[in-house]
Specification:
45% of the residues lie in helices and 15% in strands. It has helices at residues 2-18, 23-30, 35-50, 52-60, 69-84, 90-104, 107-123, 132-135, 140-162, 179-185, 209-212, 221-228, 247-255, 269-282, 335-347, 369-378, and strands at 168-172, 190-191, 198-201, 216-218, 237-240, 261-266, 287-291, 305-311, 350-360, 382-384, 400-403, 413-420. It is globular, with a radius of gyration of 23 Å. Bound molecules: S-adenosylmethionine. Its EC number is 2.1.1.176.
Length: 422
């Protein structure tokens, strides 16, 4: 499993250097690895990011002086294996860390790594700090925002869920596959408890035939739900204004049975490529991409859409479990202004009697309910509409819902459905 540790280390080094989520770095190194090794590399990389502050806190008890950044990465990776993974023999974790240090730093650093890890092993189990921020490795500003909104008990549950291993959630492409056959075919696949056509699997799926052949796509149940409750039907004219990498556009196109018109827009040209490649893989033909800033007007679209999806840029604090790096970026206080501007612009494209669906993958009130309430105050021609939440989901009736991480077997997410008066 040395290959898995090297792959995880390469991704962690890339994350430290670029500050970017190591998924792309990880994906490159995972290519050609067997499924088990790829799954371990992913777990190691996620696990270190999910517990980085706690690992540093523990390691600080055994390290004196400043460390070379790469040596710190190696120590975190080994400490994560020693403290969190029962199935890895401690000697394998320590020996591999020493070997990596010899290769990437020098012999003296390798001796230090050996000493630190052996001392840490002797001191195990290490005490968990009471402080929520350290204990769950979420920086203080985020913990403060959660505490103010949810109180201590719910905040702790969210932080804990953020550090669980994420499942891979798949949606079935009804143009090419069916759920019953995929449940048989995909290792460890299980049906989602309340969302039809939604499966969970463990580990990466990109190498499976089902994925390559476009019979499934990766999308959380909450993100899918936003489209499912929108009322999108075959033959409609639909606009997805913040569409990349394309998940909601794909769900919309498939709900339309690939009949009608679907405009998928984004502000970043390279992200439009992702949508086009995904649509091709899934066999979707109705999707048309447009490079468009969602806060700027397109006169030709005024009152022209049956449904507009506004899945706006947000702080992403509902999907920390899947993207553990998000916690290390302080959520911008300027996002609500952009979200309000996008929503106001998109409202103009909804035909009388049509639907505007607002969604985010954050759980912060200031980006969710506050934006939706402000929109209703300033747009008397729109009303909130009860959404058809699926039976068994446990979601209370209403036009809007904040799904908290893990509470309904979904990511953290916000959905609000508005209808324009006829
Ligand atoms: C939450 S993501 C959308 C996810 C997508 N709807 C999906 O389901 O796969 C937000 C997207 O908005 C795009 N974006 C950011 N600012 C924008 C703007 N002013 N206009 C249009 N798109 C924007 C980002 O590039 C990003 O792709």
């Amino acid at each position: 499993m040395a290959g898995a540790r090297d792959a995880a280390l390469r991704a962690l080094i890339a994350f430290r250097r670029d500050g970017a989520w190591p998924e792309s770095a990880l994906k490159d190194t995972l290519r050609g690895m067997d499924r088990r090794e790829a799954a371990l590399a992913t777990r190691l990389c996620n696990g270190v990011l999910q517990n980085r502050m706690l690992l540093d806190h523990w390691l600080s008890g055994f390290v004196r002086g400043k460390l070379q950044p790469v040596v710190r990465d190696i120590l975190r990776l080994a400490a994560y294996q020693l403290c969190f993974l029962d199935r890895i023999p401690p000697s394998a974790a320590v020996n591999e860390a020493v070997e990596q240090t010899r290769r990437l730093a020098n012999q003296q650093a390798a001796r230090l790594v050996n000493g630190v890890l052996r001392n840490l092993l002797r001191a195990m189990p290490l005490p968990l700090p009471d402080d929520l921020s350290l204990r769950y490795s979420h920086p203080e500003p985020i913990v403060r925002l959660f505490l103010a909104q949810f109180g201590r008990e719910e905040t702790e549950r969210i932080l804990q869920t953020d550090n669980e291993a994420p499942q891979t959630v798949l949606q079935v492409n009804p143009l090419r596959g069916n759920a019953a056959a995929l449940l048989e075919e995909l290792p460890g696949a299980q049906a989602h408890p309340w969302l039809r056509g939604c499966l969970t699997v463990s580990g990466p799926v990109e190498q499976t035939a089902a994925f390559r052949e476009g019979r499934v796509y990766v999308q959380d149940a909450a993100a899918h739900l936003a489209v499912a409750v929108s009322g999108i039907e075959p033959g409609m004219r639909v606009l997805d204004c913040c569409a990349a990498p394309g998940g909601k556009s794909f769900a919309a196109a498939l709900q339309m049975q690939d009949r009608g018109t679907l405009y998928s827009c984004d502000i970043h040209p390279h992200r439009l490529d992702l949508i086009e490649r995904g649509a091709e893989r899934l066999g979707i033909s109705i999707l048309e991409t447009h490079l468009q800033d969602a806060s700027q007007p397109v006169p030709a679209w005024r009152s022209a859409m049956d449904v507009v999806l506004a899945d706006v840029p947000c702080s992403g604090l509902g999907v920390i479990r899947k993207k553990p790096d998000i916690r290390y970026h302080e959520p911008s206080a300027e996002l609500p202004a952009l979200q309000r501007a996008i929503l106001a612009q998109q409202a103009e494209y909804v035909r009388p009697g049509g639907v505007l669906l607002y969604s985010t993958c954050t759980i912060l009130r200031r980006e969710n309910e506050a934006v939706a309430e402000d929109f209703l105050r300033t747009h008397p021609d729109f009303v909130p509409e009860n959404a058809p939440w699926p039976e068994g989901s446990g979601i209370a009736p209403g036009a809007m819902v904040t799904l908290l991480p893990g509470q309904h077997e979904t990511d953290g997410f916000f959905i609000c459905k508005f209808r324009r008066k006829p």
